[in-house]
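Q: Here's a chain of 298 amino acids. Please give me its 3D structure as tokens.
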Amino acid sequence: MISCLGQLDEVHFSESVYPRGLPHHPSPAQNPSGFVLWLWGRRVYALARMIHPTAIVEPGARLGAGCEIMAGAVVTRHCVLGERVVVHPGAVLGGDPQDLKFDRTTDSFVHLGADTVVREHVTIHRATKPGGATVVGEKCFLMAASHIGHDCAVEDSVVLANSVLLAGHVRIGRQVFVGGGAAFHQFVRVGEGAMVGGLAAVSLDLPPFVMAVNRNEIVGLNLVGLKRRGIAREAIAELKEVFAAVCCTPGNPRTLAAERLAGVRTPEARRFLNFFAESKRGYARSRRPLADHMAQDE
């Protein structure tokens, strides 16, 4: 049972001392929470609303100002949380990776960006290599029971719906939305702005701005998402061209993308093509006729 030290950029916790047995500060103006904590022989004032008495925050964990840790959540000493991160009941952050070769003495980390929300029973495992980190960006929304495995990198403004599973070393680009129950093979990459349907099974890389369903099936561009982001019509039109040329045309996607790269005009199309420069898993392709994609409304 631990309470948060208010108004500090970094928060370090000692052993559980809150709330039983603590003296009350007489001045609410000086300490609105009404509690005083003694840590490492020093008196510090606690904002009791920030961390629930039943939460566990291990010594060495670092929390930015304004974080909230709810009932029964666990934040291990391997975690670094940015400002205003909210961790809901039962979540476990910074647990050991599920790797049979992992040495538990390895000093590795979990980093969460500012304003990220971690819902009930989410698990995020720390990295496998010394000094490495599993990283979640800013303003992400991780829904209940989703899992982020060791060494993953989830960029800003990503939404993972309930029970999404990311195996180790998965890379998720910014502003990706993943539907509930989708599962990702280790080392898979998902490009920015993509949308993945619920219960999808993804074992191949998904390019930026696409929609994917079922097992590695691309069904088109995420046109609604592009419009909501305010992407220009010219860029959307060019994305449709390069998407058709790379994802709907027979041949090696990496070669097809390289052939088109020099002629693109918009940064979105360039980022789409650059995605194909590397892969450890191969690339998902469309199974729909090219004419169906070209008929998509802008």
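Q: Can you summarize the key feature?
A: Residues 1-187 form a domain with the UDP N-Acetylglucosamine Acyltransferase; domain 1 fold (CATH 2.160.10.10).
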